[in-house]
Amino acid sequence: MEKDLSELNLLSIFHFVMAGLTAVTGSIPIVHVLLGLKMVSDPSFLSGGGPAPPFNPGWLFVGVGALIILVSWTLAFLLLLSGLSLRSQRRYWLCFVLGCIVCLNVPLGTTLGIFTLLVLSRPSVKALFGVGRVG
User: Fold this and answer.
1) Where are any strands of DSSP class E within 1-135?
2) Does 134 map to a domain?
3) What is the DSSP letter of 52?
4) Are 116 and 11 in contact (CB under 8 A)?
5) Residue 33 to residue 52: CA distance in whole angstroms
6) How many domains, the chain?
7) pLDDT tens for each residue of 57-77
8) Is residue 53 part of a domain?
9) Can you give the residue range of the structural domain that contains 109?
10) Rounded Cα distance, 131 and 53, in Å
């Protein structure tokens, strides 16, 4: 049981680190959003002072950049919540599902996800979370 608790604590630290990395890298598209807003507010920005082009890609920059930021920050928040849940042995299924989702983030997320799933699949860890109890 002591081994399970120490591994859950270590996993929670790695989830916090992954949440921070996800939030920071998810903030990079802020540049695209700002550039898109500049294109929308000043169409002559695209043509160097000449007539405005027929298609202004500014809203595309804003939309895609905002979507990437929203998804990344949501994942970072869920990873933070998962780290807190691993530390307090609560929300087993949240931790398990996030372990599956974070496997898509190659290579660090894959490693973290696999180890999370391996630890959470043990019967002794399930007992710590209270999964499988009746009543």
Assistant:
1) none
2) no
3) P
4) yes
5) 20
6) 1
7) 999 999 999 999 999 999 999
8) yes
9) 2-129
10) 60
Q: In whole angstroms, what is the distance from residue 37 CA to residue 30 CA?
A: 11
Q: Assign 56 to helix, strand or coil.
A: coil
Specify the amino acid at residue 65.
G
| Token output for 98 | 């996030």
3-class DSSP state for residue 131? coil
Tell me if 58 is assigned to some domain: yes
| Euclidean distance between CA atoms 135 and 133, whole angstroms | 6
117 vs 29: CA distance, rounded Å = 31
HSE-up of 91 (CA within 13 Å, CB side)?
A: 17
Contacts of 83 (CB under 8 A, 6+ apart): 11, 12, 13, 14, 15, 16, 19
Q: Is residue 135 part of a domain?
A: no
pLDDT in tens, 79-110: 999 999 999 999 999 999 999 999 999 999 99
